[in-house]
Design brief:
The chain is mainly alpha-helical. It has helices at about 10-15, 45-50, 60, 70-80, 120-125, 130-135, 155, 165-180, 185-215, 225-240, 250-265, 270-295, 300-315, 330-335; strands spanning about 10, 20, 25-30, 30-35, 80-85. The chain is built from 14 helices and 5 strands. A 5-stranded mixed sheet has the order 1-5-4-3-2. α9 packs across α12 (about 270-295). The protein is elongated, with a radius of gyration of 23 Å.
């Protein structure tokens, strides 16, 4: 648990007074949780959680008609534990159907990383087996702010990327490519190349997410492989709502872009090469901004809400499916949709 280890007790009446966005408490079982810093990040949306502010959510979390909750939800909830219900307010909590234990009892004590300490050196000094690492890194946790990677503030700065850095960094590069490209090909040809690159990004996005970021069980045994996996994508699954680890740092994306550009230069002539590259960059920027929104945005639009739910299901329920970010098109084509509908 990430809270103060000094246990406190609260009456249900006291919890009920914390029923708004500025102070949102709930009771689950006979335990009290402060979700003030979490409700805007709730996968089902803030409004859904606000309906039950100050209330007992034991049966609500079991009711799939309201919002389906997997074991991951109880693991995240535990991070916000602040105390117990007072003795005279405690209730006998019936077990869920077909269960021999309370859901919270299935949440194991943390044996992976201590989120109160810098993460990189913990990974560097670790002796995890590959199976243990893959299992633990895909158990979502939540912090009220960005995690700390390094104790050194300079190194730490390079691990944090605000969402707005991506368009600020890449848009001038995209425009420069088009300006250079017009020297080789007319505008109509550049337009075709740009659209081709933009559409091609959707397949590249899917392929990188599935085969590179989720190499997962295929990584070799050993600390170096685990550290590389953790830095590339593992930390995003471990802390899916970390606001400064949702978009790719420019240093890493530039390295990947240069390798892709080298391949494209063997396929396309100047002009078309510039246009396709500009289209890919535009697709990438839209993808990264969309990805950030899927984790922290909210909307009443049904299609966007479904897209958000689809991606967060990949994080909280099944990381082996649902690799599309901006759409589920390629998941449908390659059969990597979720086995059962939400």
């Amino acid at each position: 648990m990430l809270c103060d280890t000094k246990q406190r007790e609260y009456s249900r009446e006291e919890v009920a007074r914390h029923d708004n966005a500025e102070s949102l408490w709930v009771v689950r079982g006979n335990q009290v949780f402060d979700l003030t810093l979490f409700h805007t990040d709730h996968p089902g949306g803030s409004d859904m959680l606000m309906q039950f502010a100050g209330q007992d959510i034991t049966e609500v979390m079991r009711d799939s008609s309201i919002h389906s909750h997997a074991l991951q939800a109880y693991r995240v909830l535990r991070d916000f534990y602040i105390g117990e219900v007072t003795a005279d307010d405690r209730r006998t909590i019936p077990l869920a159907k077909d269960s021999s234990r309370d859901e919270m009892e299935y949440v194991e004590d943390e044996k992976f990383l201590d989120l109160r300490k810098p993460l990189f050196m913990q990974m560097w000094r670790s002796k995890f087996t590959k199976d243990f690492y893959i299992r633990e890194v895909h158990k979502a946790h939540h912090l009220p702010g960005p995690a700390v990677f390094f104790s050194n503030s300079i190194l730490e700065t390079f691990t944090r990327t605000p969402w707005w850095v991506i368009p600020v960094y890449w848009t001038p590069i995209m425009i420069t490519l088009l300006v250079l490209g017009i020297k080789y090909e007319p505008a109509n040809v550049l337009f075709v190349g740009f659209v081709f690159g933009l559409i091609s990004w959707t397949l590249l996005e899917y392929s990188m997410h599935r085969f590179v970021f989720h190499y997962d069980e295929n990584i070799p045994e050993g600390k170096l492989a685990q550290v590389a996996h953790f830095l590339l994508h593992g930390v995003h699954h471990y802390l899916p709502m970390d606001p400064l680890r949702l978009v790719m740092p420019p240093a890493l994306s530039t390295f990947l872009a240069l390798n892709i550009l080298a391949i494209l230069s063997c396929i396309f002539t100047p002009g078309m090469l510039h246009a396709v590259a500009a289209g890919l960059i535009t697709g990438y920027v839209l993808y990264d901004e969309c990805h950030y929104w899927l984790h922290h945005g909210s909307t009443s639009n049904k299609q966007l809400t479904q897209l958000k739910t689809y991606h967060l299901r990949h994080h909280y329920k099944d990381f082996k499916a649902g690799f599309g970010i901006t759409s589920d098109f390629w998941d449908k084509i390659f059969g990597t949709e979720f086995a059962t509908p939400e």
